[in-house]
Amino acid sequence: MNPPSPWRLFLFWSLIFMCLTILSSGLNTIKCRAHAFSIKEATIDDIQLAFRHTQLTSRQLVEFYLNEIQRLNPLLRGVIEVNPDALYLADKADHERSTKAPVSLSKLHGIPILLKDNIATKDKLNTTAGSLALLGSIVPRDAGVVVKLRKAGAVILGKASLSEWAHFRGSNVPSGWCARSGQGKNPYVLSVDPCGSSSGSAISVAANMAAVSLGTETDGSIICPSDANSVVGIKPTVGLTSRAGVIPISPRQDTVGPMCRTVADAVYVLDAIVGFDHRDKATGEASKYIPYGGYKQFLKLNGLKGKRLGILNNTFDFEDSSISQVFYRHFKTLRKEGAVLVDHPDDFNLEDILSASESDEGAALKAEFKIALNAYLRDLVASPVRSLADAIAFNLKFSKLEMIKEYGQDLFLDAQATTGIGTKEKAALLNLSKLSRDGYEKFMRKNKLDAWMIPGAEGAPILAFEGYPGISVPAGYIEGQPLGILFGGLKGAEPKLIEIAYAFEQATKVRKPPSFRP
């Protein structure tokens, strides 16, 4: 047998060198194969396929994200801390896959996920809502959604940053800022508001510092950062996902939802976290909305066919014609895909909703926050603060460190001044219910709408008051700055919203990786 030619030897060793360089550099590509696997922008389906074809291990996946966090987080500040046990959990997932353990069949098995830092984990991670006041506190147990994520085999990668105390400490606190990690930055245009309060969850998945993430919303805190950072955010019907173990604002409005790069990924996460939790009574009522077989069955390419979508008021008319053109192109696509667009539907005034969100909602939330937060803090195994009053005192004591003098804590002080759900709060709650049930729900049914749509996050208050669901999907970019579109519906409308959002995403495919522009 003739020895290989020098040219063949050169090609062979060049290929080996290239593979070693790729593996050692911590870049995007894993393993030297004819079809190398790129982690950056990979979906859950991509990752699971790579797992099955032994192109990728959970350890390699976690190592990639840890490297990206180390590289990008000093600039973006989307992550507060990483889980010191993340690699152990990845190795555990790899072992389960190699032994064909039943859990390895889960869509989320071996998938690294970041959790907003108000979602409790009973491990080596802190749960602080971004505040130094809760640093070192010990939670009694995993949050309800974390129990479900662990059961699905997900790897808890770490905690995402947020607007401190879920943006309920002070009205002057910037979106994306918290004392523990500083100011979060939008990875598309660094000077643009990343929006809050689940800013870190959106920043991190947008910049590929995690595969998927969880955020929370009381009014706009999933929808707004998803819009601003070009990711998909699902704000579920209140009670569809457990809030047990989540640092609260309002049990009436709080919800936990996925924030991911694609609709499919968000739906896979949603499927993993929905369901009954005896520690959150709202899940008992909302469980009736969960369809048999879960939500992934609604990822349909023809999901827009026959859907009636309301265009609210003149919300798609912009002074900047380039923005209007983006959305008007989408209207043509929606019609082409079979949707029926109902322009200026009857009996709905967005201004009434926005006005109520500034007055009645604010009055109700302050009273609810004090009650719910005090209950959460009392339940901690250990904590530097045990009440809202303690947290206020802590902030005053460490005012220079927490930038209280600049940002203030007026929302804390207003909440502390409340004395429960009194006459003022009851009147506010009654008006919010009237706007929602006699206004919003009547409007939806009269116009026979499957959903409505609105640009950006302006429609978030519509969904907030009575716990309705919504999905924000990337819709385009103007000078590098992301634009999103929000689809909203009635309670339990997640199947329709997923069909609409997925079909829209697949028909437009506008999302692109961040550019990190100044």
TrEMBL record:
Coiled-coil-forming residues are none
Task: State the InterPro entries in the record.
Answer: Amidase_dom, AS_sf
> Could you tell me which residue ranges the Amidase domain spans?
61-429
The reply to whether Signal figures as a keyword in the UniProt entry is: yes
Q: Secretion signal: which residues? A: 1-26
Q: Which UniProt keywords apply?
A: Signal
Q: Does the keyword Cytoplasm apply?
A: no
Q: What is this protein called?
A: Amidase domain-containing protein
Q: Which organism is it from?
A: Cephalotus follicularis
